[in-house]
Every structure is written in C-alpha cells, then in structure tokens.
C-alpha cells in the first residue's frame, strides 16, 4: 500500500477495502447506507441536462445513481486518485460517453478546462484536516458556474457525546479524528464566508447524515 498523504485520515483506503468498498458499506450498515444515498441523490433535484463534477468519485457508485437522471445532453466528470477505484469507475462507465474520469487530487488547487452547474462530494471532505477542506471548497467554488450548487453529502453537525452509547461507539470505531472535528463545525457559516448563499439541507440516518446544498452567489 502507498504511504498515506494524511496518516490520520480515514478516506485513504487500502487496496482491499477499495476493491470491495461498495459491498463493505452495504453490509456494514445493514443496507441503511445505500438506501440513504439513493434518497440523497433524489433530493439533489438533478435535471436532464446537468453538468456535474463529482469530487472523490471513488468506484462510481454514486455517479451511477446520478447518471440515471441525466439525458444524453447531461454529463459527469469524476475525480479520484485511487488506482483501484479508478479501475472500477472506468469499467463501470466504459460504454457511457456522458461520464469521464480524471486522476486528480482534490485536496490541492487544480483548474479544469470547464465549469459545471453542480459539484458533488460524498463522505470525503470530513476526512481531511480543516485547512485542506478549505482548498476543496475553493476548488468547488472555482469550478461552479454562477448560481451553481455545491452539494456536500456527509456527516451532519451533532454532539457526539449526546449520541446513544452504541451509536457513539460505532462512530468512534469507524471514523478518524478529522471526523470528530468536522461534526462540530458550522458548515453553513464556513461556506458563507467562501461566497456561498441559499442553503438547503436534508437529513438521513437519524439526522447523523446530511445533504447540504450551497449556491454560488
């Protein structure tokens, strides 16, 4: 396994976990996580002609769900650096010209040749140190059209100490230290400071999981 960029992060996965990632999440959550993902993507109100950037796209599981709402005029660009997940992504969409993959780190500044009307990131940003999250948010902002929407599907804001003991034990067991910091921050205020407005949110999994939409002003 390659040396991790952020040793204390939980979003850089081993080759084995990357290969079986979708199945592990489904089994580990007893089916709750995949159902919540489907609901969240429904709540994104995807339009047939949407042009979407998927940051940290992984195996393409979410991308595939999103693609079901798109017409031939819609498109998705998936970004990731995991070789194992890239292989799965490209195999999954090799016959779909609407969907392209780019091997690109999202935690450093980058510039693509185009902008998008929606940017989506799912359960990735919480796994970065906070100063790196600022870079990810700026990348999203830079690649959005005016009035485009940034969707963050991740943990909601909550007090871990107020969780039922079993839920708290599971959260501590599966998450890295950066997630503990993530859930304590006011993300609407942080995004507003970056230039986002018109926030909308949807909650899932007993309000531990949230889809936060922020519009580029």
Total DSSP helices? 9
Q: Give the overall shape.
A: globular
- CA radius of gyration is 16 Å
Kindly report the average pLDDT value: 89
Sheet/helix structural class = alpha/beta
Please mark out the parts with pLDDT under 50 across 5 or more consecutive residues, or reply none. 16-21, 24-30
The proportion of strand residues reads: 15-25%
Largest sheet, if any?
Answer: 7 strands, mixed
SSE string, helix = H, strand = E? Answer: HHHEHEHEEHEHHHEE
The strand count comes to 7
Task: Please estimate the helix content.
Answer: 25-40%
Gap between N and C termini: 41 Å
Q: Strand order, main sheet: write it out.
A: 3-2-1-4-5-7-6
Which features does this protein show?
24% strand; seven-stranded mixed beta sheet; 217 residues; alpha/beta; 9 helices; 36% helix
Quick structural gist:
With 217 residues, this protein is of the alpha/beta class. It is 36% helix and 24% strand.
């Amino acid at each position: 396994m390659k040396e991790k960029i952020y040793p204390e992060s939980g979003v850089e996965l081993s080759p084995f976990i990357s290969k079986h990632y979708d199945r592990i999440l489904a089994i580990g959550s007893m089916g709750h996580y995949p159902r919540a993902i489907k609901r969240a993507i429904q709540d994104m109100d995807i339009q047939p002609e949407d042009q979407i950037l998927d940051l940290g796209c992984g195996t393409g599981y979410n991308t595939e769900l999103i693609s079901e709402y798109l017409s031939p005029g819609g498109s998705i660009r998936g970004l990731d650096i995991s070789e194992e997940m890239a292989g799965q992504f490209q195999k999954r969409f090799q016959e779909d010209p609407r969907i392209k993959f780019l091997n690109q780190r999202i935690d450093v500044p980058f510039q693509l040749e185009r902008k998008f009307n929606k940017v989506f990131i799912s359960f990735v940003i919480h796994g970065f140190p906070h100063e790196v999250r600022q870079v990810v948010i700026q990348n999203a902002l830079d690649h959005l059209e005016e009035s485009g929407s940034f969707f963050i599907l991740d943990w909601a804001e909550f007090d871990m100490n107020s969780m039922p003991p079993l839920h708290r034990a599971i959260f501590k067991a599966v998450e890295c230290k950066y997630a503990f910091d993530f859930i304590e921050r006011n993300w609407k205020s942080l995004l507003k400071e970056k230039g986002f407005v018109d926030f909308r949110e949807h909650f899932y999994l007993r309000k531990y999981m949230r889809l936060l939409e922020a519009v580029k002003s």
